[in-house]
Specification:
By secondary structure, the protein is an all-beta fold. The protein has a single domain, classed as Jelly Rolls (Sandwich), CATH 2.60.120. The protein is about 0% helix and about 60% strand. The protein has strands spanning about 1-5, 10-20, 25, 30-40, 40-45, 50-55, 60, 65-70, 75-80. The protein has a five-stranded antiparallel β-sheet with strand order 1-2-9-4-7, with no helix packed on it. Strands 3-8-5-6 form a four-stranded antiparallel β-sheet, with no helix packed on it. β1 and β2 form a beta hairpin. It is globular and about 35 Å long.
Length: about 90
């Protein structure tokens, strides 16, 4: 399950919830992204490294980095994708 919380030309925030055993196969994205783990645990593959992702962990992924997720238990995380230069607001 995923829900887009915010979407602009510069930034996208998506909340993901995986059930135990649910996986996202290896892929890459053309954007820099950050994963913030909120609940549960998963095996998170970033490039050639395997991480035991748990609540409070933060992972920064450069654009083009192959990555995959395999939930060990219910796994909730926030994905933040930087897609371009932000617009400037204010003086």
């Amino acid at each position: 399950m995923s829900k887009t919380l915010y979407d602009s030309p510069a930034l996208k925030l998506v909340l993901f919830c995986f059930e135990p055993g649910q996986a996202l196969s290896e892929h890459s994205a053309p954007f820099e992204a950050v994963i913030q783990v909120l609940e549960g645990s998963a095996e998170l593959k970033l490039g050639g490294e395997i991480h035991d992702a748990r609540p409070g962990a933060l992972y920064v992924m450069p654009s083009g980095l192959p990555h995959a997720v395999n939930a060990k238990e219910r796994f909730v995380f926030l994905l933040k994708m930087a897609r371009g230069r932000p617009s400037v607001v204010g003086p």
